[in-house]
Design goal:
Layout lengths: L5 E5 L2 H12 L5 E4 L14 E5 L7 H15 L3 E5 L8 H14 L6 E5 L7 E4 L2 E4 L2 E2 L5 H4 L8 E3 L6 H10 L8 E5 L1 H9 L5 H13 L6 E5 L4 H8 L6 E4 L7 H9 L4 E5 L1 H10 L4 E9 L2 E8 L2 E8 L8 H10 L2
Parallel strand pairs: 1-3, 1-4, 2-3, 4-10, 5-9, 5-10, 11-12, 11-13, 13-16
Antiparallel strand pairs: 2-14, 6-7, 7-8, 14-15, 15-16
């Protein structure tokens, strides 16, 4: 059984939130830190801290340094590196930073379990290659990506086509005789790792109370900056009465338009990790208490910014079916 001293490192905000939400499904209290300054000393007992490093679009050397600094600051006994389920970002550099830092902390893992699969959202791994809804991704497979990784631990890249396969992969890496594991994967893997961590009963009860007492938001706004085809289909399917700001990331007025759209809202649906981060930075939200999932891969959280309390749903651009954005907006507007 793992301990709740596990630290989660994510390279973008939607990934940080969806992995945290997966952990809450087992009764854990999770906080996403946007500025990296929150530590376990700043949170209630057994809180799992998730750090958004914003390193996905950095140069590899900068992603390495940013990741290493975050891990060093927290000095975790267990570590989960949340990676994109379609292998975007500085995945190799991030894992290398984790291994280097853990070695310096004399906590080098005995095994590195790498699995970006998220079967509930159509992401699977077969023979080291990621598939999305059955179609293999172009480019290097996981075995090529991590070939020659400098570690004394054993690198494991299991085939995963179902949620049951994920449970087996996690179970096979647990047990006192098996040593310490560095977890590398998506929210799908985080869900099963969370189920292996003993949840604090008080945190579980608090989470259930908050979910039950959630009040509908009076003004809900959808802010979409992702240009992923899935998001564009979801925007087109929104009810005409929905408050929607569909922005383009290359628009020089992006921040100004996003801030204007969010003004006066007490409920936000944010799609696209970069968009979500920009909006919450504009609102001066420094952390999110992740409360749960609207549905797999789509998290809901509460935070406090310069204008007061706000409830936020975050969604990766490529996640969800055609009506996912509508369901997220409905979730916030209804109790």
């Amino acid at each position: 059984m793992l301990g709740a001293s596990i630290l989660v490192i994510a390279d973008d905000l939607t990934g940080a939130a969806d992995s945290a939400a997966a952990l809450t499904s087992s009764g854990h209290h999770c906080v996403v830190s946007l500025d990296g300054l929150i530590t376990r000393r700043d949170t209630p007992p057994d809180t799992i801290v998730v750090i958004d490093t914003e390193s996905r679009d950095m140069r590899a050397a900068d992603a390495f340094a940013t990741t290493a600094a975050a891990i060093t600051r927290h000095s975790p006994t267990e570590l989960f590196i949340k990676i994109d389920s379609t292998l975007r970002g500085n995945i190799r550099a991030t894992v290398e930073a984790a291994l280097s830092t853990l070695s310096a902390l004399t906590r080098e893992p005995d095994r590195i379990l790498i699995c970006p699969a998220f079967p509930q959202l159509g992401r699977t791994v077969v023979n080291g290659r990621v598939h999305v809804h059955g179609v293999p991704l172009d480019g290097a497979d996981l075995c090529e990506l991590f070939d020659g990784l400098r570690t004394e631990g054993r690198v494991e890249i299991p085939d995963v086509q179902t949620d049951h396969d994920l449970a087996i992969a996690v179970g096979s890496a647990l047990g006192p005789a098996l040593g310490n594991t560095l977890w590398v994967g998506s929210a799908g893997l985080a869900r099963h790792v969370g189920a292996s961590i003993a949840a604090n009963d008080a945190a579980r009860r608090d989470g259930e109370t908050i979910a039950a007492a959630r009040r509908p938001c009076s003004r809900v706004v959808v802010i979409a900056g992702s240009q992923h085809p899935s998001t564009l289909e979801q925007i087109a399917a929104l009810d005409p009465s929905t408050n929607i700001a569909a922005l383009h990331p290359l628009d020089p007025q992006f921040s100004a338009r996003a801030e204007q759209a969010a003004r006066g809202a007490d409920g936000l649906v944010l799609t696209g990790g970069a968009t979500a981060r920009i909006v919450l930075d504009l609102l001066e939200v420094r952390s999110l208490d992740v409360r749960g999932e609207v549905e797999p891969g789509i998290a809901w959280s509460t935070g406090r910014g310069r204008s007061g309390d706000i409830t936020v749903v975050t969604k990766a651009g490529g996640f969800g079916d055609t009506l996912a954005l509508q369901r997220a907006a409905d979730f916030l507007s209804r109790s």
